[in-house]
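Researcher: Here's a chain I'd like modeled. Treat it as a single chain, no partners, no ligands.
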Amino acid sequence: MSFVPDNNIKVSVSIITYNHEKFIAKTIESVLSQEVNFKYEIIIGDDHSSDKTREILKKYKEKYPELIHLILHPRRYKEIPGRTNNTTNIYACQGKYIALLDGDDYWVSKNKLQTQVDFLDAYKDYALSFHDAKLISEENSFIANFFSEKYAYLYQDASFNHKDVVNEWFVPTSSLVFRNNLIKEFPAWFWKVYSADYALLLLLSQHGKLRFFKNLTSVWRRNNSSFTSVIKLDSTAGIDLRLVERKIFRENFELVKASKTEAHFNYMHSILLARRKSYIKMAYYAGKCVFNDLSYLGKYLTGFKKRFK
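Model: Modeled as a single isolated chain. C-alpha cells:
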C-alpha cells in the first residue's frame, strides 16, 4: 500500500459509495461531527453512481474543499463490484491511520475517532481497533439489533489476534481504524475474493492485535443495492466466487482450514447443491460443514423436518 504521508494529517477517512443518494449526506455529516484534536481528511470514492450521489458529493466538496477529496470513477469496471473503488481509495489516503466508512453507514459516537486513535498511538502492538454497530434496514424490514449480540465475546472491551479473525469474521467494516503502513501493496488475489472486507482484516491482523470498544457505535445499514444483496452467497454466482475465495484463503492463511467461516461456506454450498438436486455433492459439503462446526447439525435436522413434514 504505497502512500506519501502528510505529517499534518492524522486520519484519512475512506468512504466508498455507489447509488447512495438517500444516505451519503448523513454519512459525511457523521464524520464532520467528530470531536477531535487532530487534522483529518475525507477521501470519497464513487463507483460511477447512476443516481444523484455525485451531485451531493460535489456540493460537499465545494463547501469543504480542503477537507474532502473526491475520486469519481469514469465507468463501472468489469470486476467484482466496487473492488477498484475500494483499493483506489485506500491508496489515496495520506494519514497515519485510515478509518473506513461505507456510503450507506454512519457513525454515532462523536468521540469515535479520538478514542481509537488515542489507543493506537499508545499501543504500538495493535494493528487496528473497531467497535460495535447497530444493524438497521432501509425498509425497516427487520428489528434493529446490535452486531455484538451475535457474538458473546463482544460484551465488553476486549483484544483479539489474527487467529481469532481467521476463525470467524466479527468486525463491522465501518468501525475500523487501522495503521496506514501495514500493507505495502494489495496482493493480486485480493481482486478475486468475494469478501474484500474480510480479506483486508486477514491481511491487517497479521501485523498486530485488534482492540474492540464496546461503547463506541456506528450504524450498519443493510439495503438491497449492496454487492452482497445483489450477489447472494447461496446463488450460483455467489458460490462460484466463494469457491475461488476459499482456495485463495487456504493457500495464504493456513488456519482458515478449520474456521467457522469455512463451516458457513460449506453449509451454504450444500444448500445450493440440494436445490440443484446434486445430493451426493450436497452430502459431502454437509459433512464438511458439521465437521467444521457441530452446531450446524441442528440446522440440517430442522431443514429435513420442514422438507418432509
